TrEMBL record:
Keywords, alphabetical: ATP-binding, Kinase, Nucleotide-binding, Serine/threonine-protein kinase, Transferase
Binding site for ATP: 37
Protein name (record): Protein kinase domain-containing protein
Pfam families from the UniProt entry: Pkinase (PF00069)
Family of this protein: Belongs to the protein kinase superfamily.
Domain of life of the organism encoding this protein: Eukaryota
Domain Protein kinase: 5-273
Length: 319
């Protein structure tokens, strides 16, 4: 990309590198901002694979979008070669930082349901292309303002750990028997490390629970204690404050038999989630309320003049 680059700020770092917000100015004077993921040579293959997956998923609204079809090469502040992946910038940050803006990190009920639906829509896309994300967690979900700026949209990001369905990661082993971040992993991850679509659904259950409680699943457990709980078919506890339909949804995601979790597309029809028809009705009600409010405002500002028209005498037809 032929343009001048200006680092605006540091956004964060992870297992495969660091991310900066960068302003790119083109030769014609136009500019845009991008979140630039930087990885060193030892992590080139992972970043290249992430780019490949993002290019396959380009255009899907629940997947973070990348710019370009190849990695860029540059130098770090210390003169080391880095490879760069340009991504759309989420000004609201990750879901984890977004939750910090709310009391006790608990999100509003309607927002939880909307976000859950959006994640599932993204999973339908990912699974439909033969991939398992393998690392669904608040850090890897990005929050964007919606087009009307009255709500938010969620997109799935960070495909560095993603695998093809049935694949086993090279790092899986007895000492670390987890495919992704361990507190979001299902029991079967401990057994053989095979990436199946149902793995992401267990992680989704953890996410929904965390959005309700504000607490990280399995908080305080070390790796051995967590492995022991999972091997005994335990799941994170669902408190009584969680609504009945949400509890049913989470329990479905936490099914001990992976096949009983269903699929992402099947979960989209669960009664916990708002249906498209319901959303359209809510938007219609909102438009009606806004129209009614405008009507009230007009009547307060300028009273209507009434004109009295004398009524005509009734006319009866002779039979």
């Amino acid at each position: 990309m032929q343009s001048n680059e200006e680092i605006v700020k540091f956004l964060g770092e992870g297992a495969y590198g660091f991310v900066n917000l960068v302003k790119f100015t083109k030769g014609d004077g136009s500019s845009f901002q991008a979140a630039v993921k930087n990885s060193y040579a030892e992590d080139f293959d992972s970043l290249q694979k992430e780019l490949q997956i993002l290019c396959e998923l380009k255009g899907y609204p629940r997947i973070v979008q990348c710019f370009g079809e190849s990695l860029e090469e540059g130098l770090s502040a210390y003169g080391n070669i880095v490879y760069k992946l340009l991504l759309e910038y989420a000004c609201e940050g990750s879901l984890r930082s977004f939750m910090d803006n709310y009391s006790d990190r608990k999100l509003p009920e309607t927002m939880i349901r909307d976000f859950t639906r959006m994640i599932l829509e993204g999973l339908v896309c990912i699974h439909g292309h033969g991939y398992v994300h393998c690392d669904l967690k608040p850090d890897n979900l990005l929050v964007f303002p919606s087009r009307d700026s009255s709500s938010y949209e969620l997109k799935i990001s960070d495909f560095g750990n993603s695998l093809e369905v049935g694949e086993i990661p090279h790092y899986w082993g007895v000492r670390f028997p987890f495919v992704g971040t361990r507190i979001y992993m299902p029991p079967e991850s401990l057994i053989d490390g095979v990436a199946e679509k149902t793995l992401d659904l267990w992680s989704l259950g953890c996410l929904v629970l965390e959005m309700y409680t504000g607490e990280i699943p399995w908080l305080g457990l070390d790796i051995d204690d967590l492995a022991s709980r999972l091997l005994y078919d335990e799941a994170p506890e669902i408190p009584e404050c969680v609504p009945c339909d949400a509890r049913e949804f989470i329990e479905k995601c936490f099914s001990r038999k992976p096949e009983e979790r269903g699929s992402a597309s099947e979960l989209l029809s669960h009664r916990f989630l708002p249906r498209e028809e319901d959303e359209k009705m809510e938007k219609l009600k909102l438009r009606i309320r806004r129209a009614s409010k405008k009507s009230e405002d007009v009547s307060e500002k300028k009273p209507l003049k009434s004109k009295i028209v004398p009524s005509k005498a009734p006319y009866f037809k002779k039979v």
